[in-house]
Every structure is written in structure tokens, then in C-alpha cells.
Design the sequence.
């Protein structure tokens, strides 16, 4: 049976799982719904995801939630190009990058800078203070990621990995903000990484542009 991924395309974490599936070459079904509209949830959503978040995943009767667990399962369960490096040092670096993105980068880059910039673009009330408070945190995250990237092609070595899948959706939303673009310009190696990774067909085919007037 084809695996099924559930959750809206606009979600950072749904897109992370989609990137892993596409890069792995897995044929899958995608069930869309609006996670912010409870009336649109699948009837059994809280059975699939007890916290009411996204995504959730099912394959041959095996159910899973949390994007990090899903991408690991995709790597282990399916044939296709590897999404993890084989060397212990690079594997550890991949996990480190994912941890930094989840624990330090997501909230300031996406929940603060992107969301408030989107509200500003829609000419709605936005929280300028939230952006100002987040920017030192995003600068610290970008500096750390630039150091971890070094002169490598991708975040965990020479090949696209789960670390890159984790980073792409966060960076794409962050770069919607002019402040995000300015911070990226301070790190030429991250700029080079972004230029290369954003040209991949998986990245282009999974991008849902923010709706603005």
C-alpha cells in the first residue's frame, strides 16, 4: 500500500515530510485539510495525532506522527537515494542541525518573523515588537548553522539529507521577510546553500506561496 501523509501543504512540518518522501522517490497519497479549522479535521484526527498538530502518517497499518519520526521512517522503510550520511560524524551533525532547527530556529524564524511579516503584507495588525525580539535569535541561529555548514555543499555533507529537508521550509518562510533576506546575506555559505537547495525540483514542487493581496 502507498503511504499516506496527512496535513496541509502550507505547514512547515508537513512539507518536511513531503520533501523526504519525494527525495526518496516514494509514491504517496496526501490528505489535505486546514489544521486551523477544527471543522475540517478528519473525524479520527485526535486518534492519529493526539495533540491536534500536523502531520500524521500511515503505511501498511503503521501509524506515526511527528515529522522527525516520519522522515526517519521514510529513510529506513523505502528504497531510494539515502537521506542520511553513512559516516558517524556526518550523521551526528545531521541530528545536531535538526535539533537546532526544531529547538532554536522554528519559533523565531517562522512563528514570529514570518507570521508577523505576513500579517504586515496583508495590511493587518501585526506585532512589530515580536519581529524585533525575534531577530537577535534568528541571527544567532543563522550564525550557528553557517558555522555547521562550513564549506560543505549541504548541511550534513556532500548530499541532500534529512537536515536539509528540515531546514528548507523554515528558511523559505523566513526569507519572505526582508529582515530574513538581510540576515542571510551576512552568511555567503548559507546563501550558496540556499541557492542550490531551492533549485531542487522537490523544493519547487512543494512550495505553497503565502496568500497576500
Sequence:
Amino acid at each position: 500500500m502507498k503511504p499516506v501523509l496527512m496535513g496541509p501543504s502550507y505547514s512547515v512540518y508537513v512539507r518536511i515530510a513531503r520533501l523526504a518522501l519525494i527525495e526518496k522517490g516514494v509514491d504517496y497519497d496526501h490528505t489535505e485539510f486546514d489544521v486551523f479549522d477544527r471543522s475540517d479535521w478528519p473525524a479520527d484526527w485526535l486518534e492519529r495525532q493526539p495533540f491536534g498538530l500536523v502531520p500524521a502518517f500511515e503505511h501498511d497499518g503503521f501509524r506515526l506522527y511527528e515529522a522527525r519520526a516520519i522522515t526517519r521512517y521514510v529513510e529506513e522503510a523505502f528504497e531510494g537515494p539515502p537521506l542520511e550520511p553513512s559516516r558517524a560524524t556526518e550523521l551526528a551533525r545531521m541530528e545536531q542541525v535538526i535539533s537546532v532547527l526544531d529547538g532554536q530556529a522554528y519559533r523565531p524564524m517562522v512563528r514570529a518573523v514570518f507570521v508577523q511579516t505576513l500579517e504586515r503584507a496583508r495590511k493587518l495588525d501585526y506585532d512589530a515588537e515580536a519581529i524585533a525580539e525575534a531577530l537577535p535569535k534568528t541571527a544567532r541561529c543563522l550564525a550557528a548553522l553557517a558555522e555547521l555548514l562550513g564549506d560543505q555543499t549541504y548541511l550534513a555533507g556532500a548530499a541532500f539529507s534529512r537536515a536539509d529537508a528540515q531546514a528548507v521550509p523554515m528558511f523559505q518562510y523566513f526569507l519572505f521577510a526582508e529582515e530574513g533576506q538581510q540576515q542571510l546575506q551576512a552568511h555567503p555559505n548559507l546563501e550558496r546553500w540556499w541557492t542550490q537547495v531551492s533549485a531542487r525540483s522537490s523544493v519547487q514542487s512543494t512550495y505553497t506561496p503565502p496568500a497576500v493581496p
Remarks:
- Residues 101 and 167 are 7 Å apart (CA to CA).
